[in-house]
Amino acid sequence: MSQSRGERTRDRRTHDRYGRESVLFARLLALSDGVFAISLTLLVLNIEVPADAETGGLAPALVALQPDLIAFAVTVFVVGIYWRNHHQLFETFRGLDGTLVGLSIGYLALIALVPLPNDLLSSYPGDPWAYVAFALLLTLLSALDTGAFVYAWRSGLVRHSMTAATARTEVIRGLVSTVVFAASAPLAFALVGFTPLLWIALLVLDRLVVSAGERADLD
User: Fold this and answer.
1) Which of 18, 65, 86, 129 is least crowded, fewest Cβ atoms below 10 Å from its Cβ?
2) Are 65 and 47 in contact (CB under 8 A)?
3) Domain residue spans in the chain?
4) How many Cα neighbours within 13 Å face the side chain of 106?
5) In sequence order, what E strands does the chain have?
């Protein structure tokens, strides 16, 4: 008997999936770590001692580095959080397909762009547009991260041990992060240098969402 179009589509999707033990899964994780590592390395390269340090003295030169160091600290914090989230996301996967691989490559492309808004923050610490650019990048990262999880869950690529309640909590966490990052873009015109405090406050908000999800899972 010939297969229907729907059956052929399901067979093709099943055939194009790669388990956790596959070479593709391992290579994608290795690529991810490499992109994160290069992105962090490029942040350091943006920090340069002013050329007039010898003539003006070292102390003023170090003070002049303050915007660069603040931008570096904020960006390392953000990249570190996303590296952790990315690995936690992959821990939930029991496999990959072509769509998830594409979403992961897009995510890594955005991570590779992180040094750009970092440079804007260090060069224009008093310009709200520098924070707007960073906030928009973080919004895209969070939205893509959440979208990848939702797609994996609906496609049956998430570990069977994850309950529906836990999956809902993960989606809520992603949506909350996306909304906060998106809201911080217009708020940056009022907050300017205090905008990163909103991003740091997400740690507390995220913990509250997780705690609420754990209580709901127990009920």
Assistant:
1) 129
2) yes
3) 5-218
4) 16
5) 18-19, 95-96
